[in-house]
Design goal:
Elements: E1 9-18, E2 21-27, E3 31-35, H1 42-56, H2 61-64, E4 94-104, E5 107-118, E6 122-130, E7 133-139, E8 147-153, E9 160-166, H3 171-178, H4 184-201, E10 203-206, H5 210-213, E11 217-218, H6 231-241, H7 243-256, E12 263-272, E13 281-289, E14 295-297, H8 303-317, E15 337-341, H9 350-365, E16 369-374, E17 388-391, H10 394-401, H11 406-409, H12 414-430, H13 439-453, H14 458-465, H15 470-473, H16 477-488, H17 531-538
Parallel strand pairs: 3-16, 3-17, 10-15, 15-16
Antiparallel strand pairs: 1-2, 1-4, 4-5, 5-6, 6-7, 7-8, 8-9, 11-13, 12-13, 13-14
Helix pairs in contact: 1-4, 3-4, 6-7, 7-8, 8-9, 12-14, 12-16, 14-16, 16-17
GO molecular function: ATP hydrolysis activity
Protein name: Rad50/SbcC-type AAA domain-containing protein
InterPro entries: P-loop_NTPase (IPR027417), Rad50/SbcC_AAA (IPR038729)
């Protein structure tokens, strides 16, 4: 990826069925602020992006949601991601669906993901689309196995390649380990996977916790963590290695914080535990040099001052001093850091909040940092150029009042889902059989039968083959109806699995099939508010 090409960035986030959101799309600009009443789901938007970022970095699904002592990126864990009011299908399955668009050298690429939470946590469907092609699809074929069947575009002698992949990892991030890159189609898939993964791996959630930032730390712990508990060690590093940016940080603190500020430095402190449980070492703590007033260690600063200091440090320094898993295959100049800050103006005054936005604008103008944050007081962005403000909850509330809107469909009962599941199962058998416990060989046979019947791409076969399908596992009435439309469209004409004619856009759902109007190289966007009407018409 040449440095002259556009850097991969996340430009849209889709919450098809996630916590309190249904069919919600959020455009992400260089500086995007989310505001709205409490409880409208502002923090949920940030959490969804953090989930995708961790999965793109190679983390397993249980690790993302706090298994094995790890900290969950979502408050309440995976169970909290299930849409509110979602009812389980006949097999007791519930889950969520999220997705994003990453723009880069290949243009916009869409990634959609369906995750089953109950009865077991697993990825049940994934789709990567762009450049007029369906580049990757995965689908759960055999619930007894911890794998999904993946199919990716090759455009060689065989149009697609199929193989099982683990159901606990993002398949897009695994493609570089499985695709050789011999054909033009394989190289396209690899380039698309790289663009998506690079864009998502640059996501850095920051949540400064002043109560942990006041403690001494060991010198050398110089990569800032999300909680900013090692702020003192990072400031020691920037003072010695990043003189210009450290000077800009000092100026920012001097401009908006109380008292004189000559410099930011570190002073010796109590001994602290060494790395990895080793012997104790000399500790350090950051301090503000107030000139004639002497040194003031940061453990004496207020919570707001500490939060401002940590956020300003992140916006001025970038990934070089942050504990973020960016791509090691690309130079830093080819990557963009997306800072995700929940409560940017929490504990800081209006002047400090505006200074943070000014610093974000300065970093964004250079193309290396983007900001997605929530704020309580949107007036902090008044008259600031380049800041996009989104009121969360306003559009969803309006859609819920419309006839057939996502709000009415979201709380569908199990009785409403049952007919869709039955229809999907019956049509699946007519269109090429059901993929069951026969394993990979049986799954391939089912795929071949479906291809001969001319009806389904691999991800769509799985929807029919598992009853209500992966979208029903995602826990909403809308999802259950996906299986019905997938089966209803099976006779609409040949669709090559993951080939040129399968270039459909799943819209606000993670795993629906292309509609009758989706032709070669055409992407079809399905609005969640119109989904119920379309299903009725297709039936």
């Amino acid at each position: 990826m040449s440095s002259s090409q556009p850097r991969p960035i996340v430009t849209e986030l889709r919450l098809s069925a996630f916590k309190s959101h249904r069919g919600a799309n959020f455009a992400l600009d260089p500086i995007t602020l989310l505001t709205g009443a409490s409880g409208t789901g502002k923090s949920s938007v940030l959490e969804a992006l953090a989930v995708l970022g961790r999965l793109a970095a190679g983390a397993e699904l249980p690790e993302v949601f706090g298994a094995g002592g790890a900290k969950s990126v979502v408050r309440g864990g995976a169970a909290a991601c299930i849409p509110q009011g979602a009812q389980p299908d006949g097999e007791g399955r519930r889950g969520f669906r999220i997705g994003c668009t990453a723009t880069g050298p290949l243009g916009p690429l869409r990634l959609d993901l369906a995750v089953q939470v109950e009865p077991s946590l697993r990825i049940v469907g994934e789709r990567l689309t762009g450049v007029g092609e369906t580049l990757l699809t995965t689908a759960l074929r055999d619930p007894t196995r911890r794998t999904v069947q993946a199919a990716w575009h090759t455009a060689g002698v065989v149009a697609v390649t199929r193989a099982p992949l683990p159901d606990s990892r993002l398949a897009t991030s695994l493609l570089p380990l499985r695709v050789a890159g011999r054909t033009e189609g394989q190289r396209l898939v690899l380039a698309a996977a790289e663009q998506m993964v690079v864009a998502l791996r640059g996501v850095f959630p920051i949540a400064p916790r002043p109560e942990t930032m006041r403690a001494p730390v060991r010198l050398g712990d110089g990569r800032l963590r999300s909680a900013c508990d090692n702020l003192s060690a990072v400031l020691a590093r920037t003072e010695g290695e990043c003189g210009i940016r450290h000077g800009m940080l000092v100026k920012a603190v001097r401009d908006v914080c109380s008292g004189p500020v000559e410099r930011l430095t570190t002073v010796p402190a109590a001994r602290v535990a060494g790395s990895r449980g080793g012997p104790t070492v000399d500790g350090v703590i950051a301090a503000v040099d107030r000139g004639d007033l002497g040194m003031v260690p940061i453990d004496r600063l207020g919570d707001g001052e500490l939060r401002f200091l940590a956020l300003a440090l992140v916006l001025l320094t970038g990934p070089g001093v942050l504990d973020v898993d960016t791509s090691t295959e690309l130079l830093p100049a080819g990557q963009v850091l997306t800072v995700v800050a929940d409560g940017l103006d929490l504990g800081v005054d209006r002047r400090q909040a505006r200074e943070l936005l000014r610093l974000a604008g300065l970093a964004a103008s250079r193309g290396h940092i983007r900001l997605l944050a929530t704020v309580q007081d949107p007036s902090c962005a008044d008259d600031l150029e380049g800041v996009s403000l989104t009121v969360v909850g306003a559009e969803e509330a309006a859609a819920a009042k419309e006839p057939g809107g996502a709000g009415e469909d979201g709380a569908a009962s199990e009785a409403a889902m049952a007919p869709a599941g039955e229809t999907a199962s019956a049509d699946a058998e007519e269109s090429g059989g059901r993929a069951g416990a026969g394993g990979s060989a049986g799954a391939e046979g089912t795929a071949a039968g479906a291809d001969r019947a001319g009806g389904k791409a691999p991800i769509d076969e799985a929807v029919a083959a598992t009853g209500a399908g992966a979208d029903a596992a995602a826990g909403s009435g809308v999802g259950a109806k996906v299986g019905a439309e997938v089966s209803a469209e099976a006779g609409a004409g040949p669709v090559a699995a993951a080939g040129p004619n399968a270039g459909s856009d799943p819209g606000s759902s993670a795993v629906p099939a292309a509609g009758p109007s989706a032709g070669p190289g055409e992407e079809r966007r399905i609005d969640a508010a119109r989904w119920e009407d379309e299903v009725d018409q297709s039936g």
